[in-house]
Structures are given as structure tokens and as C-alpha cells.
Amino acid sequence: MKSAKRGGVAGGLGALLLVVGTVLAPQASAQPGEGPGPETNPLITTAPVLPPPESAPMPVSTAFAETAPQGGVVQPFDSVPSPAGCTGSTDFPHKSGVNASVHGRMTCTVAVPRVETVTLLYRDRWYGPEQLASDSSWRTNNTTSQDAHPHWNCSGVGTYTYKGYSQHASLESDGVRYTATTSNWQDPGVSRFDC
């Protein structure tokens, strides 16, 4: 009887650790059916990388070259800004009715072949950030990805600080993919609330 009890506790602890691991390393991508037309060749295939907890939020970021066109000269990562003037941004997480919400987008000064944003909504927990929701938006031959805006029903869960993280990408006419990552939560009057 004792060994069965011990096994149950260990199994429960293992499940808890698995859940925590999943929360800290979320997987998200632009999903088929989101954005206009059929989904082909997404530029963003993994979730945004969470910055260290002590880092400052970055609400707006210029996109820089990540890969070079086939046969072209490879530029060092983050060395060449987007020729189309593409920038990513993430708004403050905020209360929207009974939901916690955040909006992220990428905008360019001229239309590009493809522009995408994946935005994730988190809340601070004792063990680290907990992923609550994600959303993606993409457009082709456009100047904006439109808003990726995840929502999560926070009714009755208490007061938390919510954080938004976005990964942005543009495929431009030079054949280069440009990326930016943004995050936002620094206004406690807006980003910390209960529903």
C-alpha cells in the first residue's frame, strides 16, 4: 500500500514538472487558416523566445536581416535593417471585459511579399511565466500583418501581471527574411489587474 502511495505522489510530481516545462517552453506558430488565403511557407515556425525576467520590455523594434537570399552574401544576424522599413510592436496587455488581451503587429512603409506576427499572452506566476493564449496574423503583398491578439478569460482568477511577447517577420522583395521580437508589460496600472 505504501509503495502505491509513493508511486502516485511521484507520478503527480512528474506531471507537475511536465506542465511547468511546457509553460516555460511554449510552442506556437502561424496556423493554417489564419490570415487571408491558404497558409503556405510560414516565416515564423516557433514561439517567440522569452527575454530574461530582468530585461526591459521592448514595445517597438526594427526588423533586421536574418537570412540571405540563395546565392547572396550572408549578412551577420541583426546587421541589416529592413529595406521596407518594417517594425514590430506589442501593446500593453490590458483588461477587455472578462478577458486579458494583448495586441501585436508588424508594419512596413511599403508592401512586402509576406508579413507575419505571432503574439503570446502570459501572466506572472510563482514558478515563472505561464502561457495563456496565442494568436497569429499574416498577409501577403501588404504593408501590415494586422493584429495578432490573443485573449484569455480571466474572470475570477485574481490579480496578476500580464505580459505580451511577439515575434515578427517579413519576407521582402530582396528575398531576405527580416525579423524582430517585441514585448510589453511595463505599465503596472494597465498590465496588472483582475477581472
Write a compact overview of the structure shown.
The protein is mainly β.
Describe how the helices and strands are arranged.
Blueprint: H1 2-24, E1 60-62, E2 64-65, E3 87-90, E4 94-96, E5 99-101, E6 104-125, E7 128-144, E8 151-153, E9 160-171, E10 177-184, H2 188-191, E11 192-193
Antiparallel strand pairs: 1-3, 2-10, 3-6, 4-5, 5-8, 6-7, 6-9, 9-10, 9-11
How many domains make up the coordinates?
A: 1
Going by helix content, strand content and strand pairing, the class is mainly beta
The percentage helix is: 10-25%
- Beta-strand portion reads 35-45%
The global form is elongated
Main beta sheet: 8 strands, antiparallel
Number of helices: 2
Structural features, described:
The protein has about 200 residues and is mainly beta. It has one domain. Helices cover about 15% and strands about 40% of the residues. The chain has helices spanning about 1-25, 190, and strands at about 60, 65, 85-90, 95, 100, 105-125, 130-145, 150-155, 160-170, 175-185, 190-195. The strands form two sheets. Strands 1, 2, 3, 6, 7, 9, 10 and 11 form an eight-stranded antiparallel beta sheet that branches. Strands 4-5-8 form a three-stranded antiparallel beta sheet, with no helix packed on it.
